[in-house]
UniProtKB/TrEMBL annotation:
It holds the Pfam family PPR. The keyword Repeat applies. InterPro entries: E_motif, PPR_At4g14850-like_plant, PPR_rpt, TPR-like_helical_dom_sf. It comes from Opuntia streptacantha (Prickly pear cactus). This is Uncharacterized protein.
Length: 129
């Protein structure tokens, strides 16, 4: 038979993320490594961060990012920030993620706007500026 490659697993993990299938996502993430010997790349990690974030598990997603054996990029931090935005996740997590994104791309104004809106929602008017 035909064996799946890394691209197939990106598609499977992305589908799990968009369908809210967290347990299935974890299953395929480990299966990819254990059964098929495929080492996860940034795209696989980004899918898992997106999956966790979409489920509202932003703290778990942040821990996952910090424990990845590869350096997270803008795509991974962006997925986590989007999860914070969509689920109204932890302010502390959102601040950490935004700082990471700003460090990678200081000209990305969306991070500043996001933080400003988050602080306004929290009534932290001194931080809005």
């Amino acid at each position: 038979g035909i064996l799946p490659n890394d691209v197939v697993f990106v598609s499977v993990l992305s589908a799990c993320s968009h369908c809210g299938l967290e347990d299935d996502g974890w299953y395929w993430f480990y299966c990819m490594q254990e059964e098929y010997g495929i080492k996860p790349g940034l795209a696989h990690y980004a899918c898992m961060v997106d999956l966790l974030s979409r489920q509202g598990n932003v703290e778990e997603a942040l821990g996952f990012v910090y424990n990845m054996p590869v350096e997270p990029d803008k795509r991974i931090w962006g997925s986590l920030l989007a999860g914070c935005r969509a689920t109204r996740g932890s302010v502390e997590v959102a601040e950490q993620v935004a700082k990471q994104l700003i460090g990678l791309d200081p000209n990305n104004t969306s991070c500043y706007v996001f933080l400003s809106n988050l602080y306004a929602q929290q009534g932290r008017w001194d931080d809005v500026e």
